Amino acid sequence: MLLRLLHRAMVFVLSVLAASVLVFAFMRVLPGDPARVALGINASDEAVARLREQFGLDRPVVVQYLDWMRGLVTLDPGIEFISKAAIGPQIADRLQVTLILVVTSMLLAVVVAVPVGIWMAVRHRHVDGLVMSALSQVGVAIPAFLAGIVLISVFAVRLRWVPSGGWVVPAQDPLGFLRALALPAISLAMVQAAVLARYVRSAVLDVLREDYLRTARAKGLRPVQALWRHGLRNAAVPVVTVLGLQLATLLIGAVVIEQVFVIPGLGSLLLDSVADRELLTVQTVVMVLVVATLLINFLVDALYLVIDPRLRTGSR
Amino acid sequence: MTTSRKTRPLLAALAATALLAGCNAGAGTSTDDGSQEPGDSAGAEDGGEDTAAAPEPGGSDETVRVGLVAEPASLDFTTTDGAAIPQLLLDNVYETLVTVDVETGEIVPALATEWEVSEDRTTYTFTLEDGVTFSDGSEFTAEDAAFSLDRVSSDAWTISLKSQLDVVESVEAVDDTTLEVTLSRPSNSFLYALTTRVGAMFDTEAVDNLAEQAIGTGPYTFENWDRGSQITLERNPDYHGDAPYFQTVEMRYFDDANALNNAMLTDAIDVVSTVQAPESLAEFEGGDFQIVEGTTNGEVVLSMNQQEGNPLADPDLREAVRYAIDHQSLMDTCWAGRGELIGSMVPPTDPWYEDRTGDYPFDPEEAQRLISEAGAEGTELRLRIPSLPYAVSCGTVVESMLEDAGLQVTIDELEFPAAWLETVFTNKDFDMSIVAHVEPRDMANVFGSPDYYTTYGTEEIQTLFEEADTGTEEEQVAKLQEAAAVISEDAAADFLFLLPNLMVADPDITGLPTNAIKESFDLGDLARG
């Protein structure tokens, strides 16, 4: 098992390296010169060249890459070209915001999806279960940003219950924070909940068909009781896997939602930096997202090995 | 020729009177009946003397929240281009020696109370206001002024706009309140340039970290920057002029036009500084909000690449393009009818403005005739536009109008600024583009050089611009009118319309500038009445 884990870890490291090369290369072929963007429309070629030199963009790309990698490894990716602000603390700040948003959405999604999914499974032969199932199908199809726009127009603009956007630091104003968090978290959670509920449903359905559950019921337990006592833990395995994968898509979804709700998270930092051609910032933010995604996958894999004894033996 | 003006004390006196009378001082809205009239000699009276010492009573402890698009990339406009930084800092945190009156377009005193111009018009002697301090406590003297102007020509300034002061030969601090600037030749644009960011006054001791720290003499001080959301300014307690009404200004940045509108609709902000989508104004009509509509310096130019070998090198074809576009209907369609038709590179707030919309009236038959005469039916033109709201929505209208006239148009949308700058601006790989030139008095800049992306810059026009800059003020007006006419008649480009200044605000906010013709958005005038 340790060998397998090591193998997974190596795959993880190699993937991170490959991704860093790709991200770096992609940023170099992106049209648009950071120095030109900084100096504006009328800048002379000499001035642009001088600034490129100041930014260190005239050095060989390999040197630039290695320099950046050193920065990543030492957790000090350097300073921005234009704003001269340190990139590391900025990303840390923004990441915090994004993580709050993502984790809240995930929790919301789980809280809603698990009971609904179980309900859909248990009642899958009844009208209410089918209706619920159809609704969740619709939920899957609605993009988060659209949900966000609709929620804003109803709950912020019409009803004035919550703000239409912005961010409040939790320590400064906890209530304001919750109000600001509500709509973006719900928009992100809606789709996730719909997806997750469908997985829960099928996982529970699978479990319901298992022999041990039939046995449990034969011993006199009602279906829900049987499920509660014997089935849920087994149904949880595939659901946890999906949860991990969902977390990665949530991170990406947050990029868009942050834009809709004017939230100063990683997503808005990414988009602003692309516009300003702050190459280092863009590269680093993308790497943070990539590493997070790969890390989640790795952890899910590792968790699998721990949970499922069949995988440990290496017979599969 | 001598220019001598004293308005600041006058303004202070007027403001004090207004306050005593119980009405709102800093108003300065379009409806204000000339209380900001400059050039009156009555200002020399002692009314002005005590304002520097006691700048209170107009102040409240209120906060005003202003919504804007496009957060600055840095606070340093000496090394970073873009309108967002001077919009925020110039005249609010930094000040200039002279400034522009947004109602009259005239140049009026700011940190310089008066100035004299020598007979040969190459030496400017500025008398600086006394007792002015920077927000770090150090005194503003002619030394700082000389340092600031000298610095523009040094390597410290990197943005291209620094060339506006190329004409400066030497700068000298004669004494603490006297600054002498010598030009290499007479230049009408010099004084105007001083009203823009190149004229900003810096503290000799505080220019090390301009990207994150701004220290100036203005009515507000830079307080805090929450990157990604807002910048906070606080009233400068030692401001030498009238204290602004609001204690705190929160400049809130929105990437998304809808989010900005929603913030206004839900009372999360008090002012929308620029409405990005004019059709959305309907949401604000009906009395709950005030809508300000005026002009800007943003000429929306349909540029035509006339370098040899390109289809639009043919003047007939360029004329055809101008005839083929129905400007009124274009503006109605893509910018909700808001804006102004100008027909040339001059906004109505410039002294040399003339209505040139009649040069190429909408005439589809004439356009078709010119196209078929040139044997250019079906010529394919690449319209490469930046990913900006006006360019995207107006681009398709231009496309359909030109296709009606018999040309083929392909639209490419390029990410702005980076991709557009590279493709259109640097590589000149385009046939037509659409972009608003928002810099003030930029006709010579945009059409004065064949190397510029507009690819015009004939010798004739260069001579005109030079004569305009070195001649008397009257000659300047006449020559620039002529230049605008030549550019228009040569169909050097087409001028789609002038971007409007559209603002939305709470109904009781006063002091909003009707016309946005300065680089800065003056916050010192804002008040709640």
Automatic annotation (TrEMBL), chain A:
<keyword id="KW-1133">Transmembrane helix</keyword>
<keyword id="KW-0813">Transport</keyword>
<dbReference type="GO" id="GO:0005886">
    <property type="term" value="C:plasma membrane"/>
</dbReference>
<feature type="transmembrane region" description="Helical">
    <location>
        <begin position="282"/>
        <end position="307"/>
    </location>
</feature>
<dbReference type="Pfam" id="PF19300">
    <property type="entry name" value="BPD_transp_1_N"/>
</dbReference>
<feature type="transmembrane region" description="Helical">
    <location>
        <begin position="99"/>
        <end position="122"/>
    </location>
</feature>
<keyword id="KW-0812">Transmembrane</keyword>
<feature type="transmembrane region" description="Helical">
    <location>
        <begin position="9"/>
        <end position="30"/>
    </location>
</feature>
<feature type="transmembrane region" description="Helical">
    <location>
        <begin position="177"/>
        <end position="200"/>
    </location>
</feature>
<feature type="transmembrane region" description="Helical">
    <location>
        <begin position="235"/>
        <end position="262"/>
    </location>
</feature>
<keyword id="KW-0472">Membrane</keyword>
<dbReference type="GO" id="GO:0071916">
    <property type="term" value="F:dipeptide transmembrane transporter activity"/>
</dbReference>
<feature type="transmembrane region" description="Helical">
    <location>
        <begin position="134"/>
        <end position="157"/>
    </location>
</feature>
<keyword id="KW-1003">Cell membrane</keyword>
<dbReference type="InterPro" id="IPR045621">
    <property type="entry name" value="BPD_transp_1_N"/>
</dbReference>
<dbReference type="InterPro" id="IPR000515">
    <property type="entry name" value="MetI-like"/>
</dbReference>
<comment type="similarity">
    <text>Belongs to the binding-protein-dependent transport system permease family.</text>
</comment>
<dbReference type="InterPro" id="IPR035906">
    <property type="entry name" value="MetI-like_sf"/>
</dbReference>
<dbReference type="Pfam" id="PF00528">
    <property type="entry name" value="BPD_transp_1"/>
</dbReference>
<protein>
    <submittedName>
        <fullName>Dipeptide transport system permease protein DppB</fullName>
    </submittedName>
</protein>
<feature type="domain" description="ABC transmembrane type-1">
    <location>
        <begin position="95"/>
        <end position="300"/>
    </location>
</feature>
